[in-house]
Write a structure and sequence with these properties.
Blueprint: H1 6-11, H2 18-23, E1 41-44, E2 51-58, E3 61-69, H3 71-75, E4 94-100, H4 103-107, E5 111-117, H5 122-127, H6 139-162
Antiparallel strand pairs: 1-2, 2-3, 3-4, 4-5
The structure holds zinc ion.
Protein name: Elongation factor G-binding protein C-terminal treble-clef zinc-finger domain-containing protein
InterPro entries: EF-G-binding_C (IPR032330)
Pfam families: FBP_C
């Protein structure tokens, strides 16, 4: 994804008030982010364990979304698959996150939910070299497909939150 400034990150949020967006904690280590190897930016709130933030690049610019993790999913360590990176190695916690939709639907209480890695490590997951599983297995091709699949699925979630037709 393209480099975003702290101000661009704050301005991208679609499902919270302007003042909430001005006050939310920025991602830790923002100056060290390897943007070329990230399909979205995701981080947790250091003070509110159930609160997460993602910024997803879309054709209409970056879309920032405030997420809330369900307590049940944080407590349960039953393996689930992340809906975005679809990592099947199950080494990390995957939580059910919900997002208030942008605009009037969100003010009416409408939310959308998705299962996503609890620490938002999807970009690292899709770049882990998968073990060759059969003769003729093209690892580079598989890695590329995984990266573009992640970008696609995150973008689709952003479109649902914004209420765009996809
Ligand atoms: Zn993931």
């Amino acid at each position: 994804m393209e480099i975003l400034s702290p101000q661009q990150i704050r301005e991208s949020f679609v499902n919270c008030s302007r003042s909430e967006a001005e006050e939310l904690p920025l991602p830790p280590g923002l100056h060290e982010v390897d943007w070329a190897r990230r399909e979205y930016l995701g981080w947790r709130d250091p003070r509110l364990p159930q609160r997460g933030y993602v910024v997803i690049p879309t054709a209409d610019g970056p879309v920032g979304i405030v997420l809330r993790a369900s307590e049940a999913s944080m407590r349960s360590h039953a393996p689930s698959m992340c809906g975005w990176c679809q990592d099947v190695h199950l080494t990390n916690d995957v939580w059910f996150w919900s997002a208030r939709r942008a605009g009037q639907p969100g003010r009416n209480g409408d939310t959308v939910g998705t299962l996503v890695c609890g620490a938002f490590e999807c970009s690292a997951n899709v770049r882990r070299t998968p073990p060759p599983s059969y003769v003729g297995f093209d690892a580079d091709r598989v890695a590329e497909d995984r990266v573009s699949g992640l970008a696609d699925r995150a973008r689709r979630f952003a479109a649902t939150v914004v209420g765009a037709r996809i």
